[in-house]
Specification:
This protein is mainly beta. The chain has one helix at 112-117, and strands at residues 7-15, 22-32, 38-45, 50-59, 62-69, 78-85, 88-96. A seven-stranded antiparallel β-sheet has the order 1-2-3-4-5-6-7, with no helix packed on it. It starts with 6 loop residues before the first strand and ends with a helix.
């Protein structure tokens, strides 16, 4: 299904430690890639700016993915790799930088044409 049409994969929320309530921080969108059985992953801040991007390669009911910070992203940097199969998320790599640390975001995931296609 993910390789056929655009979809909203989910929302990333933060839990407030003092009151226990959750607040949405990011929206995860997916769209078919130009590559066979590939899926583009875009993670947007609620304000609309793109924060992270990546790709997934699907085979049967398994999807191997990679997500990283994109060029121009503010805040913290991430690199995450793993797989999703049978409702189970397995993380192979999960790296992040703290706010204000120097990071090297990647440009390969996003171009101006890619973001206009999501609309």
């Amino acid at each position: 299904m993910l390789t056929v049409r655009k979809t909203c994969l989910g929302v990333v929320a933060r839990r407030n430690r003092s009151n226990g309530l959750y607040a949405a921080s990011f929206v995860i969108l997916m769209s078919p890639s130009r590559q066979a059985s590939g899926v583009d992953i875009l993670v947007y801040r609620l304000e609309g700016g793109i924060a992270f991007g990546g790709r997934a390669q699907t085979e049967g009911d398994r999807a191997d993915f990679s997500i990283r910070s994109v060029s121009g992203s503010r805040g913290f940097g991430i690199q995450m790799e793993g797989s999703f199969k049978a409702g189970r998320l397995e993380t192979k790599t999960a790296l992040s930088t703290a706010l204000g640390e120097k990071r090297q975001p990647v440009e390969e995931f996003i171009s101006k044409t890619d973001t206009s296609e999501m609309e």
